[in-house]
Amino acid sequence: MAHSRVLLNLTRGPDDPDRATVAFVMANASATLDKTTVVLLSTEGVRVGVPAAIDAIQEPGFLPLRELVAAFLEAGGEIWACTPCVNKRGLGERMHPAIKNVGAVAAIEFVTDGGVSLSF
C-alpha cells in the first residue's frame, strides 16, 4: 500500500547533528515525491527548532541544516513541535516562527489516517 503522508519524528537535538541533518534530508526527499510531509520535533529534538540551532548545524558531507529546512518549508513541508516537550525545555518563545506546536493527537491522527512514520 502506497502512503501519501510521511511523518519524520526527530528525537535528537544539536548534540546529534548527523541525525538532525539526515531527518531533513529524508523530509526533503519525501516532499520532492509530492508526499504530505511533516517533521515532528519531540523530546530533545525540539532544540533543533530554535533558529540559532538551525543556523549552527552543519554536518560534513551534507548541506547546512538552514538550507535543508528552508528547502523543506519551500516545498510545502511542515515542522511540528511537541508542545509539552517545548514547554518542558522553556523554548516556547525561541522556536522558529514556521514551527507549529502540536499535541500527541495531531501526530497520531496524521499517521493513522493513511500515513507512515520514520524516527530519527
CATH uppermost class: Alpha Beta
Which CATH architecture would you pick?
A: 3-Layer(aba) Sandwich
Q: Give the strand line-up of the largest sheet.
A: 4-3-2-1-5
Relative helix content: 25-40%
- How do the SSEs run, as a string of H and E? EHEHHEHEHE
Distance between the termini: 23 Å
Unreliable runs: none
Annotated CATH homologous superfamily: DsrEFH-like
Q: How would you state the average pLDDT, rounded?
A: 96
Overall structural class, as computed from helix and strand content, comes to alpha/beta
Question: Major sheet: size, sense and barrel closure?
Answer: 5 strands, parallel
Number of strands: 5
